[in-house]
Amino acid sequence: MRVSETLIPTLREDPGEAETVSHRYMLRAGMIRKVAAGIYTYLPLGLRVLRKIEKIVREEMNRAGAQEVLMPVASPAELWRETGRWDFYGKELLRFKDRHERDFCLGPTHEEVITDLFRREVRSYRQMPLNFYQIQTKFRDEIRPRFGLMRGREFIMKDAYSFDRDEAGARLSYQKMYDAYNRIFARCGLTFRPVEADTGLIGGTSSHEFMVLAETGEETIVYSEEGTYAANVERAEVLPPDASELPAPRPLTAVSTPGRRTVEEVTKFLKIAPTQLVKTLLYTTGKDTVAVLVRGDHDVNEIKVKHLLGATDVELVVPERVPELTGAPVGYAGPVGLKNIRVLADWAVKAMANFVVGANKADTHFVDANWARDFTVDHFADLRNAQAGDPSPRQDGTLKTAKGIEVGHVFMLGTKYSQAMKATFLDAQGQEQLAVMGCYGIGVSRVAAASVEQNHDAKGIKWPIPIAPFHVTLLPLSQSEPVTQLASSLYRSMQESGIEVLWDDRDERAGVKFNDADLIGAPFHLVIGEKGLAQGQVELKVRQTGDTKKIAPDQALPTLTTLIQAAS
């Protein structure tokens, strides 16, 4: 492909809207353009990357025995009402009415549609197991779309759904997808890690996320460097501290803490460590209000609180309601004397004595509070985020943290959807049984963005060979006849050999061509200059490392072929 014949509108400056590395470089490299908040057009180079990723996904899904289908973008409300998700999914579900006033939505995921297909078409256990997948545009009406392709409203996704006769079969299907995902992301040239995760809005019994490791990731994972344990921080278990005898309780004392509301302010004023303070946070489920206690240096894990309460959602009580519930402004809530509110406490609080809590009175805290004497805890549980230094819940070392970008997720759904939608089959005895399901998603467009987050430098993108828009950028540095003739000859021979080449045939300065080549990020740059050609040489640059070497023009094709095949 010639640059002069292709829409590649590169930008010299960072766009003001760009928030992350991938957002900035994909805009600057002319790969995407914003249409509306969280909605993008893919230009030729960006689309080539997506098609490369899709090809790898298809090959591995087919290899794992899945069958490709294509489901509609719009789905009727009746299907979503059967599972209860029409209301449960919330405002991320973009709803609309057709001309007959019938309710529809744009599919953010397709459990309902595929389960409806199964119950209509599958009758016998002899037709199972089944695994269907599609690569399709999804829509989720994110409240704050940001980071370009990382958190858009419209995105390209591969979603798959398995149907098995029993739990054993479902576990086998899950493992096949888990293994396929490992192959997919390895083939995409990503550094990644599968981690245990929460099932979220999809539901089900267990799940794993596949995280691309990148410092710019918005997710935190914890892992045991010495062992195999790894989990999203939302899912990571925290073990109770070892039981030990608590010191004798000291008298409870109220102290004045004027204007000190935060952990940092209170502990500095009282000259204590955050480990000697207990935070009290008030949460509402919409029907109930609870107080959650955690140590001063810990953070509440709202997903764990939600699961403990069996709630659809939990959120912090709005500041305006705090005085009504505690009698004090925000920053002074505490469990002592708290009325008509259940108290939940993290395990770490159970191992504390003589600690500081809010006194439910303005500008006041209690020191030397003790949970067994001064207030009642209704339930102790694991309610905090795991953090670096915690022991691994698998007892295989100490936890460390890393940042990651979720690019894939596999779920064991069980019978959540088949039961709600009566998706049954007849077993060998002629008895009706519920299909046991799994679902498996890959954010195709997010894989592209995550790759940029992991593979870039100050000049631009450094695409891994398998998903690069082109293998080689051909850079003739002048319009002289010898340079142009050699460029034309190499261009033809690379195309005939299956090497994907972008020929920068523009009459532009060398600096402009070099800058654009680095920005676009093809794995190899082949530079043809008059001076080098006079010495019988062209220059080959490896974008990933920056290494360059001089080679004879007739060695360019075999050298590039060897390098590309080694990464395939």
From TrEMBL:
Keywords: Aminoacyl-tRNA synthetase, ATP-binding, Cytoplasm, Ligase, Nucleotide-binding, Protein biosynthesis. It catalyses: tRNA(Pro) + L-proline + ATP = L-prolyl-tRNA(Pro) + AMP + diphosphate. One of its GO terms (molecular function) is proline-tRNA ligase activity. It is an enzyme of class 6 (ligase). Its EC number is 6.1.1.15. It is found in: Cytoplasm. It holds the Pfam family HGTP_anticodon. Residues 33-476 form the Aminoacyl-transfer RNA synthetases class-II family profile domain. SUPFAM superfamilies: Class II aaRS ABD-related (SSF52954), Class II aaRS and biotin synthetases (SSF55681), YbaK/ProRS associated domain (SSF55826). Consists of three domains: the N-terminal catalytic domain, the editing domain and the C-terminal anticodon-binding domain. Catalyzes the attachment of proline to tRNA(Pro) in a two-step reaction: proline is first activated by ATP to form Pro-AMP and then transferred to the acceptor end of tRNA(Pro). As ProRS can inadvertently accommodate and process non-cognate amino acids such as alanine and cysteine, to avoid such errors it has two additional distinct editing activities against alanine. One activity is designated as 'pretransfer' editing and involves the tRNA(Pro)-independent hydrolysis of activated Ala-AMP. HAMAP family: Pro_tRNA_synth_type1 (MF_01569). Homodimer. Belongs to the class-II aminoacyl-tRNA synthetase family. ProS type 1 subfamily. NCBIfam families: PRK09194.1, proS_fam_II. This is Proline--tRNA ligase. The lineage of its organism: Bacteria, Pseudomonadati, Nitrospirota, Nitrospiria, Nitrospirales.
